[in-house]
Amino acid sequence: LAKTTQPISMDSYEGQEVNITCSHNNIATNDYITWYQQFPSQGPRFIIQGYKTKVTNEVASLFIPADRKSSTLSLPRVSLSDTAVYYCLVDSNAGKSTFGDGTTLTVKP
Amino acid sequence: NAGVTQTPKFRVLKTGQSMTLLCAQDMNHEYMYWYRQDPGMGLRLIHYSVGEGTTAKGEVPDGYNVSRLKKQNFLLGLESAAPSQTSVYFCASFSTITRDSNYGYTFGSGTRLTVV
């Protein structure tokens, strides 16, 4: 299983862009990189998924360098409602995956 | 609404009691998972299933058993509850078929279990 390392916490202000980086040095060829968001008392929610290069959807962008040993989740112009825990997940179709402890993002007014 | 449904939402058990947590999904997903989340911690995989009739151990399987007799249901059993099993339990499902369509795991809303 690919182990992931993320910063424990980050602070930001409304309207700023936030970048959260995840390290996954032993990522395997078949592994995808997926990011989730979790609010208190709720289950995690899928944000974005990528395999290589850059992926963008309506809420975030995901940057993956060529060696795929890290990935960066980019949240444009965050608001107070983006305060949550963000998890980086590396998994393959083998069905077994490991969540790290996540990054607690606090957005301040 | 389509998704993952967990029952019950809350439960208090006495040490030594047994119980079963039920997870049901209506998305025809092949894979299903049980995680536990302790306060301030990430999710740890207990058991998972890659299809009907199959189960496998995750990171922290001791003290738990699972069964997947039907594709849509994944049951988590505690045979003899211990205070160390006080946690929030999340079920999730996943489809490799929709992976290329950029979908991830779908999680339930959790079961908060307290063992006293």
Structural description of this entry:
The complex is a heterodimer of chains A (109) and B (116). Chain A is 0% helix and 50% strand. Chain A contains no helices and ten strands. With 116 residues, chain B is mainly β. Helices cover 0% and strands 51% of the residues of chain B. In chain B, the strands form two sheets. In chain B, strands 2, 4, 5, 6, 9, 10 and 11 form a seven-stranded mixed sheet that branches. In chain B, a hairpin with a 2-residue loop joins β5 and β6. The model of chain B has no long low-confidence stretch (mean pLDDT 92).
Share of residues in helices of chain B: under 10%
Could you tell me which chain pair has the largest interface and how many residues each side has?
A-B, 24 and 28 residues
Number of discrete helical segments of chain B: 0
- Looking at the structure, what is the overall shape of chain B? globular
Q: What oligomeric state is this?
A: heterodimer
Q: What's the pLDDT, averaged over the residues of chain B?
A: 92
N-to-C SSE string of chain B, H for helix and E for strand? EEEEEEEEEEE
Measured between the Cα atoms of the first and last residue of chain A, the distance is: 39 Å
Structural class of chain A: mainly beta
Number of strands of chain B: 11
For the record, give the distance between the C-alpha atoms at the N and C termini of chain B, rounded to a whole number.
35 Å
The pLDDT mean of chain A sits at 91
Largest sheet of chain A: 6 strands, mixed
* Uncertain runs of chain B: none
Shape of chain A: globular
Number of DSSP-assigned strands of chain A: 10
Radius of gyration of chain A: 13 Å
| SSE order of chain A | EEEEEEEEEE
Proportion of beta-strand residues of chain B: over 45%
Strand content of chain A: over 45%
Quickly give the structural class of chain B: mainly beta
